[in-house]
Fold this protein.
Amino acid sequence: MSLEATLPGLDPAMEKEFNPWLAAEARFNEAATLLGLDDGFQKVLKSPAMEVTVHIPVELEDGRLEVFTGYRVQHSIARGPAKGGIRFAPDVTLDEVRALASWMTWKCAVVNIPFGGGKGGVICDPTLLSKNELERITRRYTAALMDVIGPERDVPAPDMNTNEQTMAWIMDTYSMHKRSTVTAVVTGKPLNLGGSRGRVEATGRGCLFVTLQALKKFGLEPSETKIVVQGFGNVGGKAAKLMHQAGMKIIAVVEWDGAVYNPKGIDPEALQKHRQETGSITGYAEAEDMDRFEAMFLPCDVLVPAAKENVIHSKNAAKIQAKIICEGANGPTTAEADQILDEKRIFVIPDILANAGGVTVSYFEWVQDRMGYFWNEEMVNSRLEEIMVNSFQDVVAYGERHKVHNRSAAYMVALDRVAFAIKLRGIYA
Ligand code: GLU
């Protein structure tokens, strides 16, 4: 979903607020100051370890040559190989990839898995490209990054507009160059190519686990819980399905082209089927169409922003009427909006915790690939639950102890863990 699609009349003065790297920095600075980290150490923690830009020539279907620009940023390798997805989008910027890479560092540290943080992006519009063109872009991008990625170095995964097929192409290209099959170079692969059971639903399932914990804090039963989901893709769609299965009422679903509302609850699988048949969630017989710019502000217990960055900002945060926000997307809330949500006493489950289920099962996938021994889905899901529940408890207890809101608590837990690793390793000179 493009920014313009989410924000009516985007004000150019808000550009700074919407710069994800500045947003990441604001949260970082706040947590680092609260932790009392000295300036030099803050610089070390904040700066990306490596940023690579590649310009990749690709032949299009009509025979023309086009050059695409791609990035891979390794923000940190202090606690293990860099880890994080690759996104394909026309509006990808280095600042965005940099911010997303740093969020991966903090995310992996919050759930305490042995990875640093990385992210990649290719500037392209997948809706205008054929499957063959996408394959050629992916393979050439991978070939350009042969010395950057690797199971012990940097392990990509899917993100916006990339999927299992993209990961299969990366795995194959990397393996061809290495002259042996290296499944652990990427995660989020198809099941029969070294993928893990439960990976496709993992981010949504993680959202479910932390939401259940938050509901307990509010004394709410799942059956009396009203949910609004913004973004009905891999994260929001799966979260909605699993929350519905857990007995919660999905009262509204918001997408880039419209929203649907039914106070009695929507069946996400039936809605998905409707979208497959008609190309849109709107016009669904079991719910009313609604203004997509208003649906996010319906009174509800849990709002799940699961699409893109910057959907909750200084101009609309005051309108939110949810008790809990479970951030399925990366960076859906701007730093300026944090304060407004805090004043409204909204219980925010921050992105680096709420959506960490995906990378957690990616970790399981990487472990399974390296063992060559695969787990059943029950094992994956129960280990995921254990990690998500423990991480939620750690963050919330830390926030209560230090009297800070959940986002600061999550950053503080994460920064502290990464700082500890760097201190133990020492600064190599
Ligand atoms: N792209 C996902 C994220 O932002 C998953 C990353 C991964 O599995 O490495 O968390």
Remarks:
- Residues 174 and 245 are 39 Å apart (CA to CA).
